[in-house]
Amino acid sequence: MSGEVIGFALLLVGLLLVVSKLVRVKSRVAQKLFLPSSIIGGGIALLLGPDLLGNLAAAVGYDGFAEAGLFGEDVLEVWGELPGLLISIVFATLFLGERIPRPREAGRLAGPQLSLGITMASGQYVVGLLLGLLVLAPVFGLPAMAGALIEVGFEGGHGTAAGLGSTFEDLGFAEGTDLALGLATVGVVSGVVLGIALINWAVRSGRTSLLQEDAEASLAQQRGLFEREDRRAAATLTVRPASIEPLAIHFGIVALAVLIGQAILSGLQALEQALWVDTVELFEYVPLFPLAMIGGVLVQLGIDRWDRHQVVDRLMMVRIQGLALDVLIVTALATLSLQVLADNLVPFLLLAGLGVAWNVGVFLLLARRIIPEFWFERGIGDLGQSLGVTATGLILMRVADPDNKTPAYEAFGYKQLGFEPFFGGGLITAASVPLIAQFGAVPMLVVMSVLLVLSAGVGVFHFGRKEPDREVLARAESP
């Protein structure tokens, strides 16, 4: 594959992102759903791809687009490789540029949030594995690892689903990638739609502490734009461009984190080969991205200790992460196989329906019993993340707490430090598929069931019985 083809494929992604942003600005439906432009762009690429435009062209007898749609096989091949590469950048930047807090410092706010998040995530495995063992495997002939698709698609999102593509393929379940990507799309859309609906319901029924019944997102927010008076710098220049481009030094730090992750993964694979030879093959199928996240944490710990000039800027890292994630989502959706979804439509609908029902049920029944103050404003973020991605949770928290008067954002951020390394694309998510393939679904079901009971029990009977924090309540009441 030539460099010219790779460059052209990247240029087409940029064009799709511009077009999709115009759609978001002009389309009232996209605005009301708060659809990210990357998902719109991926949807446009999917419409113009082989499964839709290609099949339509073949049906009318035109061979030009019949095989690979508008973009061609070479471009689709490049796009197919990008998600697995970019997901490591997304996870490497999760904690870069942000001081790692002490456990006691973060525990007070993060505890209830972490309990709710783990309950949702572990329950996705329990629901999915039970469905797999009782229905998907005996009735539809799917492998047991299909039970992990709810967590991979919903909690993990498009990036994780695409990043696990090689793992699914190596384990003989190549269609798992397309099913997980389909679930991720359902999760994002349902997360926003159901989240906004729940916020409106909570406002009307008096379950929100801040929003009034006439509250509504501004037109600029719906379009995904900043008003002129609200605009701010996208990042901070911490080094002089005459010495090195600030973006370049930050990319170098991200590269260091990814390389450390690769070294850790290679070491674990070598250790596994030396100890168990062919009897256990777990790290052989674990992708790079969760180890890249650990590499990012290790780099950040070094930065906290030795970066006296504060060269690393968190906003710049967020920009790098955002670019990688947008390109990842567009290319992952563009290469999604609709034929696989059609061939497994009933299993797909069962996984999607039960996944949505579980997350919404936990939010409505347990969030108020786990989080002592502002349960709705704080819990809606976890619901959004459990159905879609972190950005979905942030969008819903922004709507429920537009002036940031509750500790929702702070608690959600601290919770990520204990949650992301394991679920939502972390070590457990990455290892779950090879673990199920190696040892079967029942051991994973038992472990996740125990974790579900423990997390829900600690949340309800420990955090849920604590008195609301007066300082937190006073902060929300201040003008």
Which strand-content bin applies to the residues? under 5%
Overall mean confidence score, pLDDT: 81
Element string (H = helix, E = strand) = HHHHHHHHHHHHHHHHHHHHHH
Number of helices: 22
The biggest beta sheet, please?
Answer: none
Helix content: over 70%
- Overall geometry comes to globular
| Cα separation of the termini | 60 Å
Q: Look at the helices and sheets and give the structural class.
A: mainly alpha
Query: Spans of 5+ residues with little confidence (pLDDT < 50)?
Result: none
Alpha-carbon Rg, integer: 22 Å
Give the beta-strand count: 0
Write the SSE topology:
Blueprint: H1 3-26, H2 28-32, H3 37-47, H4 50-59, H5 73-92, H6 103-140, H7 149-155, H8 157-163, H9 165-170, H10 175-205, H11 219-223, H12 246-276, H13 289-306, H14 314-334, H15 338-343, H16 345-370, H17 375-387, H18 390-400, H19 408-419, H20 427-439, H21 441-461, H22 470-477
Helix pairs in contact: 1-3, 1-5, 1-14, 3-14, 5-8, 5-13, 5-14, 6-7, 6-16, 6-17, 6-19, 6-21, 7-8, 7-10, 8-10, 10-16, 10-17, 10-18, 12-13, 16-17, 17-18, 17-19, 20-21
Can you tell me about this structure?
- The protein is mainly alpha-helical.
- It has helices spanning 3-26, 28-32, 37-47, 50-59, 73-92, 103-140, 149-155, 157-163, 165-170, 175-205, 219-223, 246-276, 289-306, 314-334, 338-343, 345-370, 375-387, 390-400, 408-419, 427-439, 441-461, 470-477.
- The termini are far apart.
- The model has no long low-confidence stretch (mean pLDDT 81).
- It has a domain at 84-209 and 315-325 and 337-467.
- The radius of gyration is 22 Å and the shape is globular.
